[in-house]
Amino acid sequence: METSSSSIMDNIAEGFEPDGNREFHNFLSFSKGSSSELKSHTYRSFDKLLISTEQFETLGEMCEIEKNKIGSLMNYLRKSDCKGIKFK
Predict the structure, then answer these.
(1) Which CATH architecture has domain 2-79?
(2) What is the mean pLDDT of each run of 10 residues along the chain (88 residues)?
(3) CB 3.0-4.6 Å disulfide test: which of 10, 12, 23, 62 passes with 18?
């Protein structure tokens, strides 16, 4: 779970650095996938009785919120006329 959650933030940071929306969008896609992977880990942890029902529900909601935020940013980048700093 720690690796998946770290990957979300790391991919956002790595994608932001090249200053181009296409690359950033790609890395956001990886981050969104890591959010799904993290949610999968919560199911496995719950099934193994490592986390409570409350923790499972909270973590699941947090994963969905994060995926929605990343998806919204990806949508914004697709519609944006600005293609990144390196294209100015």
Answers:
(1) Up-down Bundle (1.20)
(2) 93 86 92 96 97 97 97 93 64
(3) 23
